[in-house]
Protein: non-specific serine/threonine protein kinase
Organism: Penicillium camemberti
Amino acid sequence: MSKDCHAVSKRSRSKTASLRILLTTSSSQLSFIVFNDRYRIIAKLGYGAYSTVWLAWDERANEYASLKVSVRIDSNNAEASPVLNEINMLQRLKQFADKDHPGLDFTRLARDIFETESLASRHHCIAYKPQGNSVRTLQEVFPNAMIPKTLVKSLIHRLFFSVNWLHATCGVAHTDISPQNVLMEIDDDTSLQDIEDQESQDPSLPTTSTIYGAMPIVVYKSRPTMLTLSGHPILTDYGQMRLVEGCVNQDWWMSDLYRAPEVLLHLPWGFPADIWSIGVMTLELLEGKNLFDPIDHVHGQYVLPLALAQYIGYLGLPPMNIIQNSPLFSTYFDAQGNWVSELPVPEASLEDFVTTIPPGEEKDQFLRFIRKILTWDPEVRATSNQIILDEWLMRPF
């Protein structure tokens, strides 16, 4: 559908619909649903743990928008809500969005934030510029989930610019950097227009379910955007973002497979935790598998001593000045800092883990790059500002 058609829609359609209609109607005519007297719903793009995401037409700005609609927030635990945390952090990031920094090109910011009502409660909504699929989805395109080195280098290099802006300018740490939370930028509106055409020609047929007891809701199928290989990553999802500037964070945090060792050891953590996550993700994208797997897959539980043993396998024993300050010291280490847990330390090395770069000068450069990032001591871990000019990242393709 052309943009002229959107103008016709604006004149001819009512703009009084709300989330109440989206949750309860059995009609498949999504285009009659308008949020905040502005965003006309086109199609469902997907969903996550705390929200659904919709493609919409912004009738005020005359452009496409991606509308993230949150689930109901538990009023008894509102302070811990990732939804409210994301909104608070987006509002903080907006304060620094006028700064001239290249990281802004690779960081997703909100265009609009508002609330709307349903039969269940009030829901928070965030309007973004639409983006493509996640890097996790991109992995599924390549054999064994191994993304070509040239594309990995492009993604990671740009991601460090985003993190540099978050750290140096905004004073926050993302804390949940993973392939799922990095989107591929859409170059133009072609794929969005395709989704709109699909919805117009073959409207989504809703199915009815229940929520919060007997309350009926309508569920629509998702129409994901077209996969692009632009090489331009967009860091997103700030539900776990934390303020670091002027704060002391020492709680259990981060996702299991990307958890920095200072968090593992219950020590204070901050900006370097994000750098660690990017390092682990770099290896995952290149090799198609995680460096660490500290999960009891029978019971689906994270095993802390297993994680420590695996970290030691790749990094060696942690320095005494690090583990002596950890409350886990006497549990897993002796007075000399030796590992005393019953779980064995696996025989492992980064040299053996990296197979996609053949032995030679480039592999040596890459191993130096990754060892600047995967360190026990966050104080000696490379900062985003330092790593941006690393020899491997700057190496000609």
Summary: The mean pLDDT is 88. The first strand starts at residue 34 and ends at 35. The longest helix spans residues 149-170.
